């Protein structure tokens, strides 16, 4: 690290103000070439029947065989990094930066309004799948709103301790709490509670509650732990349907309003949405036993 600093100061390769731009350019070029390499590898091996090892690149798919293109990951990273840079602005009184932040907000709204198009790679704006765009906007508004109100990710511990106290004990404590918090977030997400995990990154006690409570019936956690316990799966299904009904009613109403169709959803549509959303997770597929050839 000291060698890098000495090299940077000796050659004065770029001014310190331009260093983020340089890092951005290097990351852009490297990511482009790595992505192209991975995509070409996947395409070349698309027709191969050989089982893939865990480290080999492969396409990312969601439920129903939906292919997640890397543009989706790019959009999420751009949004997260943009909000982070706006949030961490040192001086909010700089007019140029404020104007750039406004431009970012306008662009983010336009992109997220077509998020379903990016996800499905087809025009589903007015179709049922187009509701994904509305969900993406809701998530962005929730995160930005929490940041405006002064909540910070992983706020259960004070990061200032890391800067003020350089003792080993203090740093080990901060790292341990951060690791536990992130593990709780992973458990909550595996239980299918996306909103609890999202908000819990700002209000950490929600992660504790979400990790302790019952999993949603379609989540990976239920697939691994509830498929051999029918009573627990039934409880999860009943609980999910009871708790989700008012949420689905409000969600459908708000989606209709945003989509230009202000109407309160009838019970049949709510029941159909509940039937579509709520289902038991399939049991894990049995791993075939293969013998190696010496």
Write a brief caption for the model.
The chain is 63% helix and 1% strand. With 294 residues, the chain is mainly α. Among the domains are: 152-213, no CATH class; 216-282, no CATH class.
Q: Give the % helix.
A: 55-70%
What Rg do the Cα atoms give? Answer: 23 Å
Low-confidence stretches: 287-294
What's the pLDDT, averaged over the residues? 77
Q: What is the helix tally?
A: 13
Shape: globular
Count of strand segments = 2
Q: Give the SSE order as H and E letters.
A: HHEEHHHHHHHHHHH
Backbone structural class: mainly alpha
Question: What distance separates the N and C termini?
Answer: 47 Å
- What's the story with the biggest beta sheet? 2 strands, antiparallel
Polypeptide structure, described:
Among the domains are: 152-213, no CATH class; 216-282, no CATH class. Helices cover 63% and strands 1% of the residues. The protein has 13 helices and 2 strands. A two-stranded antiparallel sheet has the order 1-2. Strand 1 (60-61) and strand 2 form a beta hairpin. Helix 3 (70-87) runs antiparallel to helix 4 (95-113) and helix 8 (168-190) packs antiparallel against helix 9 (194-200). The model is unreliable at 287-294 (pLDDT under 50). This is Membrane protein. The chain crosses the membrane at residues 21-42, 68-90, 97-121, 136-156, 168-189, 195-215. Keywords: Membrane, Transmembrane, Transmembrane helix.
